[in-house]
Amino acid sequence: MKKMVNFHHFWWWFLILTLGFLDFHLINGDNDDLFTLLAISKELKLDDWNQDGLKNNNSNYCSWPHITCNSNNFVEKIVLSHQSLQGNLTLLSTIKSLKWLDLSFNTFHGLIPQSFGTLFDLEFLDLSYNKFDGSIPIEFSNLKNLKFLNLSNNLLMGSIPSELEGLVKLQDFQIYANSLSGSIPDWVGNLTNLRVFTAYENELSGKMPETLGAFSELQLLNLHSNYLEGSIPQNVFANGKLEVLVLTQNKLTGSFPDSVGKCKRLSSIRIGNNGLIGNIPREIGNLSSLAYFEADNNNLSGEIVQEFAQCSNLTLLNLASNGFSGIIPPVFGEMINLQELIVSGNSLFGEIPTSVLSNKNLNKIDLSNNRFNGSIPRSVCNSSRLQYLLLGQNSLTGEIPNEIGNCVKLLELQLGGNYLTGTIPPEIGRIKNLQIALNLSFNHLHGRLPPDLGKLDKLVSLDLSNNQLTGDIPLALKGMLSLIDVNFANNHLTGPIPAFAPFQKSPNSSFSKNEGLCGYPLNTFCENSNGIQSFHHKVSYKTVLVVIGSCLLVFTSVTIVVVLFMMREKQEQMAKTVGKQDEEVIDDDKPLVILGNVFVENLKQAIDFNAVVKATLKDSNKISSGTFSTIYKAEMPSGLTLSVKRLKSVDKTILHHQNKMIRELERLSHLCHDNLIRPIGFAIYDDVALLLHQFLPNGSLARFLHESSKEHGYKPDWPVRLSIAIGVAEGLAYLHQLAIIHLDISSGNIFLDSDFKPLVGEIEISKLLDPSRGTASISAVAGSFGYIPPEYAYTMQVTAPGNVYSFGVVLLEILTTRAPVDEEFGEGVDLVKWVQGAPTRGETPEQILDAKLSTVSFSWRKEMLSALKVALLCTETTPAKRPKMKKVVEMLQEIIENK
Ligand SMILES: *[C@@H]1O[C@H](CO)[C@@H](O)[C@H](O)[C@H]1NC(C)=O
Ligand SMILES: *[C@@H]1O[C@H](CO)[C@@H](O)[C@H](O)[C@H]1NC(C)=O
Ligand SMILES: *[C@@H]1O[C@H](CO)[C@@H](O)[C@H](O)[C@H]1NC(C)=O
Ligand SMILES: *[C@@H]1O[C@H](CO)[C@@H](O)[C@H](O)[C@H]1NC(C)=O
Ligand SMILES: *[C@@H]1O[C@H](CO)[C@@H](O)[C@H](O)[C@H]1NC(C)=O
Ligand SMILES: *[C@@H]1O[C@H](CO)[C@@H](O)[C@H](O)[C@H]1NC(C)=O
Ligand SMILES: *[C@@H]1O[C@H](CO)[C@@H](O)[C@H](O)[C@H]1NC(C)=O
Ligand SMILES: *[C@@H]1O[C@H](CO)[C@@H](O)[C@H](O)[C@H]1NC(C)=O
Question: Cys-Cys link to 443, which of 377, 420, 480, 884 (CB 3.0-4.6 A)?
């Protein structure tokens, strides 16, 4: 304190000497405040205040921006959010009259000043969205008047101090998105004014305070994504004022309290991904405001209570992956606002509820993986705007009704794994919007394929495998222009496979087990019945041979390396894995890999599945961890090093789509390009899927751009960056040439080998994930935030121009060394908008580029400006204005050639 005063005086004198000309006469107020504010403006480089104070001779700080005074001219409120500020804040604590301090959305870092604990009048403190680290200062316990405390989105660690029990007036307490650990202290439960408590996305553990909500009128409780244990305290609902409850992704156990029925205003309950047991209380029907109920991935059981039907505002009901049994209550048809009903992965049976299907607002019904029997009702799409009809893996019987053709809004139709009989109704061809998948596999369908299927020109995935379909594959199917993934296997189809790119690019397993089928990609030649047909075959064989040839080249060089490794290995070690790939591999102690394969013939002997699995069990092997997967380094006994991607097991759909995934991987493993990471193989056990790739020692482009430069100082490396950009563009151009669209282009999915040659990865991942899952859906379908093309919002389709856009974002990252989304750009502004907004902000292109690179030489600067032009073309808002990927490659190569 004493030091503080001295320091303060120092400033006072300093300012007297330098600013002696200022005219001080505030009626009340405090001249000390003036000097403090000027000193702060200097420290924080806050031009607004310097401008008024120094240039305009305006000593009346009460009229300065960001400041509000009380009637006695004492500073009462300072709002400095979104100013890109940093610096030492300690001085602020000398403005003792402060009641309201908002420093959110800046780049303050280091510890939160303890001296804030001396601002005894403070009622509102918002330090959110900064980079403060260390722990929450216990000095805050002195802020007896504090009502609003927001420390969210910082880098805070340690536990929530028990000393803060003095904050008795606290009303809003927000500390989400930090790294806080330990348990939630009891004093939080004793607060009598608490209305809002958010601590989600931390590392909190232990039980919630038993009294949480008991003494207060809690309205919002959001603690998702922590490690909380124990049961949900009854008291949370005690006051009946709760409106939003989010506890998703914790380790909560016990049953869901029936006191929930008291909360008439509760509109959102999200308790998914926990270990909750028991029934859903019938009192749920008392929640007339309930709009959102999500309890998937728990161990809830019993019947689905019909009281839900009383919640007339219910919009989403997700009970997937629990132990529910019984039927779907027919009264569910009364929920006229219901848009999504998701009950997959339970033990439900009975008929598909027609009353629910007749609901006009229903958008998605997911009954898959249950025991629903009965047939598909003819009234299936009489009135609804259904986009997702997911009935796979049930016990449905009867025929697919012709009325299925009324479902014109459908994006996805899953009927696989049932006992459906009859023929495929030609009316399916009327579902012109069908895009994501049409799956009729594993049924008892017979008869010929209706040529009308060819009208489905947006459809990406078609699976008719494992039925008793007969006749030939109609030439009309060539109308399915968007197809990537087809499966006709295990039917009785006959005749030549039509010469159609999506068919020819499929693995032969897509057509296998049809005695009568012939032609590429099968190994059986067709009898020469039709000259044109066989000519086509010759052409495609030629291209295929070229492709296979270049693959062989790659394989050969790999082989040599592998053989060298193998020579060092003992024979027995090799014998262990040989020939076991396609069947169960049982280890001595416990069964590990249920299913696995290595696509690259010459690597088969070098890969040991058990070693792969064991590597993923050790944290020390972890390379990186993302939303959907964790990547490990795995050393094989043969000496080979692999990168193993473990898909997060919560996504059980991966297992449901196992065969599809395997075919997809097989197909991708045939891609040959220097700048693409191909899958080498896979292994599946329990509910875990592991994908094998080559190991790349230099990590991702994102790390190269955004992390390694921070760690090891800065290396001006424009030529390296330009060649990375060209390599990525070449890899993508190759994919587009094969009509393959990448679903998740980002710098995090581009990897660098030891020579900094880029390899585009994650070619396979997005397709394997269920696009319908909660908030992840957008990134699962369309890529990572900041890279998603603007048109995706209304088309919901990733296209080649969309890929060009995402590449443009990567190129901007390379040019600016900035992340695609950054709070510094301001609210709602991403890298693209920030760059596009440069002219309006009066900034030149040079101010956008990473100055550490562009100032190295004139020629670097010139090249960077040319590359910036390319990036701007790629990120054009209108997809049609963006260049093709091939053209992008040419433009980037020109930059090098014009040196
Ligand atoms: C501020 O006041 C000083 C002294 O009175 C004067 O010299 C100066 O021109 C003034 N500046 C402005 C911008 O009015
Ligand atoms: C901030 O300034 C105060 C004096 O105003 C000083 O005591 C403190 O050490 C400074 N903090 C940092 C992190 O530089
Ligand atoms: C921080 O929390 C306070 C109190 O709940 C709230 O008023 C404020 O808007 C929050 N700040 C941000 C940036 O969300
Ligand atoms: C909370 O309240 C209970 C009962 O009123 C009391 O026994 C306990 O000491 C309080 N705990 C804290 C940390 O204030
Ligand atoms: C709450 O629900 C229960 C069980 O459904 C019912 O018996 C009770 O009458 C309801 N209470 C109110 C106030 O609606
Ligand atoms: C149902 O939702 C509508 C629209 O959001 C709202 O106006 C109405 O108050 C809600 N009904 C209840 C009982 O909360
Ligand atoms: C789920 O509940 C059933 C019985 O209700 C129990 O047998 C099973 O062990 C539980 N599973 C988990 C993972 O808790
Ligand atoms: C469906 O299954 C239930 C329960 O096993 C059975 O009672 C019912 O008769 C079945 N319905 C049909 C149409 O097979």
Answer: 420
Residue with tokens 């039925």: 467
- Which ligand has its closest atom nearest to the C-alpha of 161? 4
Rounded to the nearest 5 degrees, what angle is found at the Cα of 659, between the Cα atoms of 792 and 451?
70
**Could you please report the per-residue DSSP string of 102-157?**
E--SS--EEEPPGGGGG-TT--EEE--SSEEES---GGGGG-TT--EEE--SS---
Query: Ligand 6, closest atom to CA 265?
Result: 14
Q: Enumerate long-range contacts of 651-654, CB under 8 Å, 24 or more apart.
A: 651/769, 651/770, 651/773, 652/321, 652/345, 652/687, 653/769, 653/770, 653/773, 654/687, 654/689, 654/768, 654/769
Q: How far is the CA of 695 from the centre of ligand 3 (A)?
A: 44
Among candidates 340, 304, 342, which has minimal Cα distance to 320?
342
If you count DSSP H runs as helices and E runs as strands, how many of each does the chain have, helices first?
23, 40
Atom of ligand 1 nearest to the CA of 22: 2
Query: Residue 276: nearest ligand to its CA?
Result: 7
Q: How far is the CA of 290 from the centre of ligand 4 (A)?
A: 33
Q: How does pLDDT run across 142-200, given as a tens digit for each residue?
A: 999 999 999 999 999 999 999 999 899 999 999 999 999 999 999 999 999 999 999 99
What spacing in Å lies between the alpha carbon of 648 and ligand 4's midpoint?
41
Residues annotated as catalytic (active site), given as ranges: 744
What are the residues whose beta carbons fall under 8 Å from the beta carbon of 502, sequence distance 6 or more? 480, 483, 484, 486, 739
> 88: Cβ below 6 Å to ligand 2?
yes
φ/ψ region of 689 (left if φ > 0, alpha if ψ in -120 to 50, else beta) reads beta
Q: Is the pTM of this model over 0.90?
A: no
Question: Which residues contact residue 570 at a Cβ distance below 8 angstroms, ignoring those fewer than 6 apart?
Answer: none
71 token code pair: 């009637």
Long-range contacts of 768-773 (CB under 8 A, 24+ apart): 768/647, 768/654, 768/657, 768/661, 768/664, 768/689, 769/628, 769/651, 769/653, 769/654, 770/651, 770/653, 771/436, 772/342, 772/364, 772/366, 772/388, 773/651, 773/653
Does this chain's domain 183-326 share its CATH topology with 697-899?
Answer: no
- The residue to mutate among 164, 184, 186, 192, having the most atoms of ligand 4 within 8 angstroms of its beta carbon, is 186
Q: How many whole angstroms from 282 Cα to the centroid of ligand 8?
A: 26
Return the CATH class of domain 365-524: alpha beta
Assign domain 697-899 to its CATH superfamily: Transferase(Phosphotransferase) domain 1 (1.10.510.10)
Domain range annotation of the chain: 183-326, 365-524, 525-574, 591-695, 697-899
3-state secondary structure 356-411: HHCCCCCCEEECCCCEECCECCCCCCCCCCCCEEECCCCCCECECCHHHHHCCCCC
* Residue found under tokens 């990473």: 850
Give the model confidence (pLDDT) of 791-827 as tens digits.
Answer: 776 566 677 888 999 999 999 999 999 989 888 888 7
> Does the CA dihedral 481-482-486-491 come out positive or negative?
negative
Pocket of ligand 6 (CB under 6 A): 288-289, 313
Q: Which two tokens stand for residue 145?
A: 């008047």
Q: Is 114 in the pocket of ligand 2 (CB under 6 A)?
A: no
pLDDT in tens, 442-483: 999 999 999 999 999 888 889 999 999 999 999 999 999 878
Select from 312, 313, 315, 361 the residue to mutate for testing ligand 6; criterion: most ligand atoms less than 8 Å from CB: 313
Options 3.80.10.10, 3.20.20.20, 3.30.70.20, 3.40.50.2300; CATH of 183-326: 3.80.10.10
Q: 591-695: CATH homologous superfamily?
A: Phosphorylase Kinase; domain 1 (3.30.200.20)
